[in-house]
Amino acid sequence: TGIDTVSCPTDSTLTYANFGAAFMEANCLSCHDGNERPSLATQSGVQANMGHILDEAVYTDSMPEDADMTIAEREMLGEWIACGAP
Q1: 7/81 Cα distance (integer angstroms)
Q2: Is the pLDDT confidence value at 2 over 70?
Q3: Chain-centroid distance, C-alpha 8
Q4: Which burial class, exposed, middle or buried, applies to 35 when counting CB atoms under 10 A from its CB (0-12, 13-18, 19+)?
């Protein structure tokens, strides 16, 4: 149960500073902090793995393994990634 498609709204205000860093910390870095691949501990690490993140955490609910993200959280993640994870 994931999202079918994502897009970047022209009025998106999500950035690494105001969304991505805290989101990754809360949902991904317990595993993907550099110990497990891919590393998502930096903005560049997220940007290098955007397709993987969409496949595993937005289009499906494969990730995170140890936490529940709501559809709304997955939608926000998808929007941020669709915008290039600025």
Answers
A1: 9
A2: no
A3: 14
A4: exposed
Calculate what percentage of the chain has a pLDDT beyond 70: 97
> What would the two tokens of residue 31 be?
């595993």
Long-range contacts of 53-61 (CB under 8 A, 24+ apart): 53/77, 53/81, 54/6, 54/78, 54/81, 57/27, 57/28, 58/2, 58/3, 58/6, 59/2, 59/3, 59/4, 60/1, 60/2, 61/1, 61/2
Helix and strand counts by DSSP (H, E) for the chain: 4, 0
CB 82 within 8 A of CB 53: no
pTM score > 0.90 for this model? Answer: yes
Q: What is the dihedral of CA 74, 86, 35, 62, to 10 degrees?
A: 20
Give the span between the Cα atoms of 37 and 31, in whole angstroms.
9
